[in-house]
């Protein structure tokens, strides 16, 4: 392949080598001049004043003044680790992606995070966790930017600023720091009832994981896979931890938030450094790519719905092992930039309206967070595949591109027309039919069922898990100042299950409302029985 013109060595460009640690024999300025003293500023006599001409003083302080970059607008608090992904070959049947071929080993970097807290917030708060994986494949980087909960709060990315504004600290008091702002959060999820499914997962033990090592991960959206012959299937990605799924108890989580706010970060790094490498199986649920994009009555483009594993088993396609901690948190964990659109040949997006908005949002926010358009040149973000793009110039450009003709085809720099055939190419259009339809701001009717899967989740819980869920709703709703908001959320719980609703209402000392969504609408659709699936028994 073409040489990577964006990662030149010092020798090629004349750029001096920058010491990676503090071990050099001499301290130098940023320009390499040796220094004798870094503890005293240059003064007119030992009692001053300090002289403006002290370049070393100004350089040292100026650089320090600019050490911080904006924290991520969401998922600001996180920890990351390096590792390897080894494919077992099972996915070869459905995708041409080279890194999923049997025995292929791909270096990876994973970042785990909470969603709402700021960079310095506590690890063990009740929240969704991010589980973002960068696969440095030799066909281009694949980012699987997922969460530890398989559904999302909203169905359309246009509501993302709203749900996050509702969850982040209140604008007046900046309270609470680390978990959902209570009045606005419950106001949002009780008004935008598609959020009820994600919310019950948060109120369950899934909202307070024991460790990053004991979390499942989910791609959430449905993806499309394309094989060598161009045949397609729809898939959902699942990470299953080898250690099993474990959670904290709420009292433990609260105590840890005070005693060791770095609990999850410490646990991850201690385990890896002790050689207890955490592992996950990556699996896919596979669905036929039909024009309806549904499976067993579930709309596969609706990110608030799961497909129960009883109906579409998760098939393992490879194993992830995290085996190396970062050398430098800022360089690696803080500067890593994931993007849902980083896809290798053989994996593609679908029309899920949440996913479509994410395709815009990540690069947009990273342009600010990482200071301009060249952040793929930051070491942690550099692809391991050869890069030969025609992206030029811009802030923080580190490549010294050669040649005069950054366009294709060209007749000056050997820029030949693209070779025929698309086997190894990403972003090859899958010829799915796009319906001829009026331009509307609307969602399909299938997105209107906001309760059946919440009931499914509640029904699948053991008695002790149900007890924890009731306790969590009661505790969190108990923090709301506005009674009308508590009452509206109780109304939502009445639509989920009478026992759940009654127990939370009793805990809050409020009356038990009647359901407003008739039970007939919250039964499994007939299509579920057609494929022989069963709803888990209570
Ligand atoms: C960051 C997951 C929906 C915007 C993240 C991160 C994860 C994640 C794991 C942290 C990445 C990291 O560690 O650096 C998800 C999942 C979603 C979802 C699973 C739904 C299924 C959305 C939507 C939007 C969005 C709908 C916007 C329309 C962002 C932004 C960041 C982010 C702006 C910060 C990225 C950065 O600063 O590098 N998301 N997200 N997310 N997400 Fe999402």
Descriptive account of the structure:
- This protein is of the alpha+beta class and 538 residues long.
- 26% of the residues lie in helices and 15% in strands.
- It contains 14 helices and 14 strands.
- The protein has helices spanning 10-13, 55-65, 160-167, 182-191, 196-203, 250-259, 263-273, 329-334, 353-369, 452-459, 463-478, 483-496, 498-508, 526-530, and strands spanning 27-28, 34-35, 78-87, 105-114, 129-137, 140-147, 217-218, 223-226, 232-241, 279-288, 294-295, 298-299, 315-324, 347-348.
- Strands 3, 4, 5, 6, 7, 8, 9, 10, 13 and 14 form a 10-stranded antiparallel β-sheet that branches. Strands 1-2 form a two-stranded antiparallel sheet.
- Helix 3 runs antiparallel to helix 4.
- The longest helix is centred in the C-terminal third of the chain and has 17 residues, at 353-369.
- The chain is globular and about 80 Å long.
- The N and C termini lie far apart (57 Å).
- The structure holds protoporphyrin IX containing FE (HEM).
- Protoporphyrin IX containing FE (HEM) binds next to strand 4, strand 5, strand 6 and helix 9.
- Residues 72-75, 78, 111, 113, 130, 132, 145-147, 152, 157, 160, 220-221, 303, 336-338, 354, 357-358, 361-362, 365-366, 369 line the site of protoporphyrin IX containing FE (HEM).
- Its cofactor is heme.
- Residues 28-416 form the Catalase core domain.
- The active site is at residues 75, 147.
- Its EC number is 1.11.1.6.
- Keywords: Heme, Hydrogen peroxide, Iron, Metal-binding, Oxidoreductase, Peroxidase.
């Amino acid at each position: 392949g073409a040489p990577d013109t964006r990662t030149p060595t010092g020798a090629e460009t004349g750029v001096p080598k920058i010491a990676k640690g503090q071990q050099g024999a001499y301290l130098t300025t940023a320009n390499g001049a040796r220094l004798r003293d870094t503890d005293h500023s240059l003064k007119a006599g030992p009692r001053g004043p300090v002289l403006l001409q002290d370049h070393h003083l100004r350089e040292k302080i100026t650089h320090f003044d600019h050490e911080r970059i904006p924290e991520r607008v969401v998922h600001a608090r996180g920890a990351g680790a390096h590792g390897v992904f080894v494919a077992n070959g099972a996915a070869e049947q459905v995708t041409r992606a080279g890194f999923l071929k049997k025995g292929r080993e791909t270096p990876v970097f994973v970042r785990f995070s909470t969603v709402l807290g700021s960079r310095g917030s506590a690890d063990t708060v009740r929240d969704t966790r991010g589980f973002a994986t960068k696969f440095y494949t030799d066909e281009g980087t694949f980012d699987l930017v997922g969460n530890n909960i398989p559904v999302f709060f909203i169905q359309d990315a246009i509501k993302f600023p709203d749900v996050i504004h509702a969850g982040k600290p209140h604008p007046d008091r900046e309270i609470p720091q680390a978990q959902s702002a209570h009045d606005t959060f419950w106001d949002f999820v009780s008004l935008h009832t598609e959020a009820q499914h994600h919310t019950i997962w948060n109120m369950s033990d899934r909202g307070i994981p024991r460790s990053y090592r004991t979390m499942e991960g989910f791609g959430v959206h449905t993806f499309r896979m394309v094989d060598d012959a161009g045949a397609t299937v729809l898939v959902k990605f699942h990470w299953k931890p080898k250690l099993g799924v474990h959670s904290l108890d709420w009292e433990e989580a609260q105590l840890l938030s005070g005693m060791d706010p770095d609990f999850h970060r410490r646990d991850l790094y201690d385990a890896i450094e002790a050689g207890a490498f955490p592992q996950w199986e990556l699996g896919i649920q596979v669905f036929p790519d039909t024009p309806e994009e549904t499976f067993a009555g579930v709309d596969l483009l609706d990110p608030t719905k799961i497909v129960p594993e009883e109906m579409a088993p998760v098939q393992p396609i490879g194993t992830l092992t995290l085996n190396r901690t970062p050398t430098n948190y800022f360089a690696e964990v803080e500067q890593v930039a994931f993007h849902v659109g980083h896809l290798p040949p053989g994996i593609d997006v679908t029309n899920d309206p949440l996913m479509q908005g994410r395709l815009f949002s990540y690069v947009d926010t990273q342009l600010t967070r990482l200071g301009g358009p060249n952040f793929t040149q930051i070491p942690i973000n550099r692809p391991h595949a050869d890069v030969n793009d025609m992206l030029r110039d811009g802030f923080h450009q580190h490549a010294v591109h050669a040649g005069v003709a950054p366009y294709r085809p060209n007749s000056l720099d050997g820029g030949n027309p693209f070779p025929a055939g698309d086997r190894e190419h990403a972003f090859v259009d899958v010829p799915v039919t796009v319906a001829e339809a009026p331009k509307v701001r609307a969602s399909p009717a299938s997105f209107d069922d906001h309760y059946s899967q919440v009931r499914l989740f509640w029904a699948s819980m053991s008695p002790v898990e149900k007890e924890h869920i009731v306790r969590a709703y009661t505790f969190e709703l108990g923090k709301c100042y506005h009674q009308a908001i508590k009452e509206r959320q109780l109304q939502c719980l009445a639509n989920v299950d009478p026992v759940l609703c009654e127990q939370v209402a009793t805990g809050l000392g409020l009356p038990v409302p009647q359901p407003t969504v008739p039970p007939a609408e919250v039964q499994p659709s007939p299509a579920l029985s057609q494929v022989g699936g069963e709803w888990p028994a209570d």
